Amino acid sequence: MIDILEKIGNVKEFKEIPVEEEKVYLLLHFANVGTPSIGNIQPWNFVLVYDNKIKEKLAEASLHQNFIKFAPLIIVVAIDLSRLFFKYGQIGETLYSIQEASHVSIMIKIACAYLNLGCYLVRVFDEEKVKECLNIPKNLRVFYIIPIGYPKENIILEDRVPFNHLTYVNEFDKMIKIDPMVVKRLNELFSTYKKESKISLEEKF
Prior knowledge:
CATH class of the largest domain: Alpha Beta
Structural class: alpha+beta
Helix content: 40-55%
Distance between the termini: 20 Å
Shape: globular
Strand order of the largest sheet: 1-2-4-3
């Protein structure tokens, strides 16, 4: 489990190797069946992009994040707002749509790690340009552009604020306190794991 979790980093450089068709379908299958969906609506739609000219347009629409166009595969995640609005009204469009898109995109990221692939969740882009480029209907909103491929290098997790600085117990002003013995055991666990792994892991407890 740890080895999979430690592969869920951000990847922007990919090998020039196509992603096998079976793995593409596994990604979509895991995302579709493994993602919780409010009312089991499954409002997500996926656009698979292989065409290099379209990749260039997506990179341009993403404020020139040029690494996008070098990915062997891009999955664009769009959400059908009309289906959410029909059942839940305005909150379906404004809140549940964001939740559904985030859930299914994270599931794609987890599936990538399981299949030894890397990806990046691109969130900054001109949505209208993306929709025009891919001929996406008006009732759908684009939430994520996900370039996918085999990482050029070992995945290195970004430095983050430790979770114990962000976690509270029962009330917001009561920060969690971790037993020093638990900290020791956790660090021993990660230390042992680092020796057996090629993945860079910077533990902070």
